[in-house]
Design goal:
The complex is a heterodimer of chains A (about 180) and B (about 450). Chain A is built from five helices and four strands, in the order βαβαααβαβ. Chain A has about 180 residues and is α+β, with helices and mostly antiparallel strands. The chains are: A alpha+beta (about 180), B mainly alpha (about 450). Chains A and B meet through helix 4 of A and helix 12 of B.
Chain lengths: ~180, ~450
C-alpha cells in the first residue's frame, strides 16, 4: 500500500513543541522529529518511552568499580606486593584509601565510555554511516517533523499542519523514496 | 500567609524545656574533684561496663600504692579524666549550638547564591529560606556567648585560651598572635556581624521588592549585596572554621578545612530547606511548589553530599598517606576512640545519600527525600561531633543526657524561630522578577 509521509518544517523550537502536542492530540502518528540541537522536553511531548540509558550507566559503573578493585588487588597485593611509602602491602582493605582514586576513575571511565557506545548502538550510529536525515537544513536552523499519513486524508493533514506554524510542507511517497 | 499551629508551638517549647532541664542536669552532674571521678568510675565498673578492665587496674594502682609514683600517675590520669568530664556538657552544648547555627548559615549562603546567579527555578522557595535564616540572629548570639566564655577561659574548651598551657607550649606561643582571647572575640564579632548585616538587608530588600516591583530597583540591590556577601562569606567562613572548630586541636591544621566545613553547612542547609518545604506542602501551603522544585533540592542534596565526601577524602587521604606524626594524630585519635561515629558518619553522609538519591525518580518521592534528609542531618551532626569532641572530651565521650538535651534544646529553639519567621510574610515572594518562571519551573 502506498503510504505517504508528510515532512513539516519549523523554524522555532517552541513552535515545534506546540505543534508536536497538537499533532499528538489529533492522533496522527509522528514517525520522527529531526532537530539541529536537543530540544528539552521533546521526548516527553512525543510520548517516547523514558530512556533506560541511566540504568546501563549504573551497571557499567559497577563493572568499572569491580575491574578497578580486581586489578589493583592483583597488581599491588597478590602478584607483586609493593611497599610504597611504608603502607601495608599485604591487605587490600588496609591499603584501600590509596586505591580510591583509581576505583573512582575507572568507575567514571567505564560508565562514561560504555554509555556513549551504548547510545551509538541504540541510535544505530557507526562510522561511515549514511545520514538518515531527510533535509540538510535540519543540521542548521530548521526543525523537521515526519508524520505518517496512514489512512488519513492528506489534504486535511497538510492544512492542519500549516495551521500549527509549519513554514514548509512536503508530501513524500514512501515507496519512491527509500 | 502561614499561621503557626499551636501544636507545633507547644511541641517546640516542650523540646526547649526538656533540653534546658537535661542540660542543667548534665552541668550539675559533672564531677568537681578527683574523688568524684574515682567514685563515678568505680560505680561504672560495678555495672560491668565494656572498658571496666582497664579502669579497674588503674583503680587498684591508685589505691594500693600510697605515696609512690604509681599513685601519682593514677591521680594525673584522674585529673585528666576530670577535665574531660567537666568539658563534656560544654562541648555537647557547643556542638548543638554550632550545628543549628551552621544550618541557618548554609541556607543564607544558598540564598545569596540564588540571587547572585539570578536563578529562575528557586524564587518560590525564597520565603522558606528567609525564614530559616531568621535563626541566625538568636543562634549567632548564643554561639557568640559560648565562644566568648571559651575564649576567655571560663570553660576549658580551647586549650590555647589557658595561659598555663600556652606557657609550656612552644607551638601555641608561636600561634598566640592569632589565637588569643581578644583577637578571637573581635574576629567573631566581625564574622557574625557581617553575616547578620547581609541577612538584615537581604530580607529588607526582598520585602520592599514585593511592595514596589516597578523597575526591579530592590531586586537589583539584592543582587549586588548578595554578590558582595558571597565574597565576604567565603573568606570569613573559612577563618571562622579555623577559629571555631580547628582551634580545638591547635597543633593540627588542614588547609582545606574551611571548604570541608562549608560543604557540611551547605548540604545541611539545603536539606533543611527541602524538609521544611515538604512539611509545609504536606500542610497545604506552598501550592506553587511542584515536584520539580523538590527534585532540584534533592539533586543539590545528592551533589553536595558527594562534594563533602570528596573534600573529606582529600583531607583524609593526604594525611593518612604522608603519615606525618603531627598531622596524623588527628585521625588516629578519631579512629581509635571514635570508631563508630567516625565510620558511621561516612556511611550516613556518603553511602546512604548516593544510593538512595541516585535514581532520578526517587528525588521526586517526598518520603524518600525526607528519609534521606533526616539521615544526612544526623550524619552531619555526628560529623561536627567528631570535629569537636576528640579534642575536648577525648576518650571519655559517650552520648549521654547532655548531648541529647543540647540537641533537643536547639532543635526546639530552631523550630520555634523558623516557623515564627514564616508567619511574618506571605509565602510567595510575588515581586521577584523570576517568580513566574519559577512557578512554571518544569524539569
Amino acid at each position: 500500500m502506498a503510504s505517504k509521509v508528510i515532512h513539516a518544517l519549523y523554524i522555532d523550537d517552541d513552535i515545534l513543541m506546540d505543534a508536536v502536542k497538537q499533532v499528538r492530540a489529533e492522533h496522527y502518528h509522528i514517525e520522527e522529529v529531526y532537530t539541529p540541537f536537543p530540544v528539552h522536553g521533546l521526548d516527553k511531548a512525543m510520548g517516547l518511552a523514558p530512556t533506560k540509558l541511566a540504568i546501563t550507566s549504573f551497571m557499567y559503573g559497577c563493572v568499572g568499580l569491580t575491574v578497578a578493585i580486581t586489578m589493583m588487588n592483583y597488581i599491588m597485593i597478590e602478584d607483586w606486593p609493593q611497599n610504597i611509602g611504608g603502607k601495608p602491602s599485604f591487605s587490600y582493605i588496609e591499603n584501600m584509601p590509596a586505591f580510591v582514586p583509581i576505583m573512582f576513575e575507572l568507575t567514571v571511565f567505564f560508565a562514561a565510555h560504555l554509555m556513549v557506545i551504548t547510545f551509538y548502538m541504540r541510535s544505530k550510529l557507526w562510522p561511515f554511516k549514511e545520514a538518515e536525515n531527510p533535509d540538510v537544513r535540519t543540521t542548521d536552523d530548521h526543525f523537521l517533523m515526519a508524520i505518517d499519513t496512514g489512512h488519513h486524508d492528506v489534504d486535511t493533514m497538510t492544512s492542519f499542519l500549516s495551521n500549527t506554524g509549519a513554514v514548509e510542507i512536503k508530501v513524500i511517497d514512501k515507496e519512491d523514496n527509500h | 500567609m502561614y499561621t503557626l499551629s499551636s501544636k507545633l508551638r507547644v511541641f517546640s517549647i516542650i523540646l526547649v524545656v526538656i533540653g534546658a532541664i537535661g542540660l542543667t542536669i548534665g552541668f550539675l552532674s559533672t564531677p568537681n574533684t578527683i574523688e568524684e571521678v574515682k567514685e563515678m568510675m568505680a560505680a561504672h565498673d560495678a555495672h560491668g561496663g565494656g572498658h571496666g578492665n582497664t579502669n579497674a587496674t588503674a583503680n587498684t594502682h591508685a589505691t594500693e600504692g600510697h605515696g609512690n609514683e604509681d599513685a601519682h600517675g593514677g591521680d594525673a590520669h584522674y585529673e585528666h579524666t576530670l577535665h574531660q568530664l567537666q568539658n563534656k556538657p560544654w562541648a555537647a552544648l557547643y556542638v548543638a549550638a554550632f550545628f543549628f547555627f551552621m544550618i541557618a548559615l548554609g541556607v543564607l549562603a544558598f540564598y545569596a547564591i540564588q540571587f547572585a546567579a539570578q536563578a529562575g527555578w528557586s524564587p518560590v522557595l525564597f520565603r522558606v529560606m528567609e525564614a530559616i535564616t531568621a535563626y541566625l540572629v538568636p543562634g549567632g548570639i548564643i554561639l557568640f556567648v559560648i565562644l566568648a566564655l571559651s575564649g576567655f577561659h571560663i570553660n576549658h574548651l580551647f586549650v590555647w585560651a589557658d595561659p598555663e598551657v600556652v606557657a609550656h607550649d612552644k607551638l601555641l606561643q608561636g600561634k598566640a598572635s592569632w589565637l588569643n582571647s581578644g583577637w578571637f572575640i573581635i574576629r567573631a564579632i566581625v564574622f557574625l556581624g557581617g553575616w547578620l548585616l547581609y541577612r538584615h538587608f537581604a530580607i529588607k530588600y526582598s520585602r520592599k521588592q514585593d511592595e514596589d516591583p516597578n523597575g526591579n530597583k530592590w531586586y537589583k540591590k539584592s543582587f549586588k549585596i548578595a554578590a558582595g556577601f558571597l565574597v565576604f562569606f567565603i573568606y570569613t567562613e573559612s577563618m571562622a572554621s579555623w577559629d571555631w572548630i580547628m582551634s580545638f586541636d591547635p597543633h593540627w591544621f588542614s588547609t582545606l578545612f574551611g571548604w570541608y566545613v562549608f560543604a557540611s553547612l551547605f548540604v545541611s542547609g539545603i536539606t533543611t530547606i527541602a524538609l521544611i518545604t515538604i512539611y509545609l506542602k504536606s500542610k497545604g501551603y506552598l501550592e506553587f511548589v511542584n515536584d520539580s522544585h523538590i527534585h532540584d533540592l534533592a539533586k543539590f542534596m545528592f551533589g553536595i553530599s558527594i562534594f563533602w565526601t570528596y573534600l573529606w577524602f582529600s583531607q583524609f587521604m593526604l594525611i593518612w598517606y604522608s603519615n606525618i606524626p603531627e598531622e596524623v594524630t588527628y585521625f588516629i585519635t578519631r579512629i581509635e576512640d571514635y570508631k563508630l561515629p567516625f565510620f558511621g558518619m561516612l556511611v550516613m553522609n556518603f553511602l546512604f545519600p548516593i544510593l538512595v538519591l541516585m535514581n532520578s525518580d526517587y528525588k521526586r518521592v517526598n518520603w524518600f527525600v525526607v528519609m534521606a534528609g533526616v539521615i544526612i542531618l544526623c550524619g552531619h551532626y555526628i560529623d561536627i561531633f567528631n570535629m569537636v569532641m576528640p579534642a575536648t572530651v577525648g576518650e571519655s565521650w559517650f552520648i549521654g543526657v547532655s548531648e541529647i538535651s543540647a540537641v533537643l534544646l536547639f532543635l526546639g529553639l530552631f523550630l520555634l524561630i523558623v516557623f515564627k519567621a514564616l508567619t511574618k510574610a506571605p509565602l510567595l515572594a510575588k515581586g521577584n522578577p523570576y517568580i513566574e518562571e519559577s512557578k512554571h519551573f518544569h524539569y
